[in-house]
């Protein structure tokens, strides 16, 4: 079992920065990839950034060049550095872990509780 706890959300002005943190605990050896997703009111949850176990990163086009995903020490903590924030970045941000059930036994997603990011216009 893996537990994910997000922190770092808040209220910032347009053009400001925030760094979100996701602390992973439990059976972190089973994590294949981690990512950040967000969901704005009335919108579907969307992927923001992903990082694989090999350190490969991918970003949504809307945040590319502004956001950076990174991790420390074998998945203990994953970060999302958000720069040049825009009002359209306002959403609840969720940490996600893709967790293996075992070799050839499939995967499932574990989610954090979410942290609110609000960017004032």
Descriptive overview:
With 121 residues, the chain is mainly beta. The chain has strands spanning 2-7, 10-13, 18-26, 31-39, 46-52, 57-59, 67-72, 77-82, 91-100, 107-111, 115-120. The strands form two sheets. Strands 2, 4, 5, 6, 9, 10 and 11 form a seven-stranded mixed β-sheet that branches. Strands 1-3-8-7 form a four-stranded antiparallel β-sheet, with no helix packed on it. The chain is elongated.
Explain the layout of strands and helices:
Layout (H helix, E strand, L loop, with lengths): L1 E6 L2 E4 L4 E9 L4 E9 L6 E7 L4 E3 L7 E6 L4 E6 L8 E10 L6 E5 L3 E6 L1
Parallel strand pairs: 2-11
Antiparallel strand pairs: 1-3, 3-8, 4-5, 4-9, 5-6, 7-8, 9-10, 9-11
Q: How many strand elements?
A: 11
Tell me the number of helical segments per DSSP (H or I, 4 or more residues long): 0
Q: What is the residue-mean pLDDT, rounded to a whole number? A: 94
Order of helices and strands: EEEEEEEEEEE
Helical content (DSSP H or I, runs of 4+):
under 10%
Q: Regions with pLDDT < 50 over 5+ consecutive residues?
A: none
Say what oligomer this is: single chain
The fraction of residues in strands falls at: over 45%
Structural class designation: mainly beta
The radius of gyration computed from the alpha-carbon positions, rounded to a whole number of angstroms, is: 14 Å
Shape: elongated
């Amino acid at each position: 079992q893996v537990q994910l706890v997000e922190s770092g959300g808040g209220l910032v002005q347009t053009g400001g920065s925030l760094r979100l943190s996701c602390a992973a605990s439990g059976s972190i050896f089973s994590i294949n990839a981690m990512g950040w997703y967000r969901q704005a009111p009335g919108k579907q949850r969307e992927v923001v950034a992903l990082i694989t176990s090999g350190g490969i990163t991918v970003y949504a086009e809307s945040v590319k060049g502004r956001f950076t995903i990174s991790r420390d020490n074998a998945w203990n903590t994953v970060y999302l550095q958000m720069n040049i924030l825009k009002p359209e970045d306002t959403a609840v941000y969720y940490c996600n872990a893709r967790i293996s059930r075992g070799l050839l036994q499939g995967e499932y997603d574990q989610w954090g509780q979410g942290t609110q990011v609000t960017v004032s216009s």
